[in-house]
Request: fold
Amino acid sequence: MAIDSAGLAAIRLTLELAAVTTAVLLVVGTPIAWWLARTGSRWKAVVGAVVALPLVLPPTVIGFYLLVALGPHGPVGQLTQALGLGLLPFTFAGLVVGSVFYSLPFVVQPLQNAFEAIGERPLEVAATLRAGAIDTFFSVVLPLARPGFVTATILGFAHTVGEFGVVLMIGGNIPEKTRVVSVQIYDHVEALEYAEAHWLSAGMLVFSFVVLLALYGRKKEVVR
Reply:
């Protein structure tokens, strides 16, 4: 028995969500990681703790508060309605917002570690050559931090693919709109459709193993 049409639709939506979320996370997470790596502000610990919250909070807690904030009576929901954008819960855009919050530490922390590993010397050399801040970042920092960006991209994408609690709370279970693979598996199990659940679960297992194998294999090469 192969994956049915509902499963294929869930896979397509999951991959699309992971790709969009990862792109947004790299754009949002890079300046946060750079600030955390470079700042001496007393707010560093606070910001770092906020970024790391998804590592310890149950996904349903994050999903609940996002649902409240993005709902019709929440501050973000009222803003999006005033701007004519409608409400984000139970839409693909809402899934992206929830996924960005939930996967943020998996992108920010590898980037922060990569930025901190660069040290001061390359930046000082660039300054002596009269390179501006933006030029230094793109010409010096980004190439040196490339392994961190690769790791952040892999972890952000893979973590988004494996989400369940957050996407279920913020997106619900709408076929071809918000029903991702993890929710599809849950539906199959509830309906006692174990064969269909097995196909999707096995695919997730193989995907996760390949991602981790690539990640740890890359780390081994870097160490060498």
In short: The two ends are 44 Å apart (CA to CA).
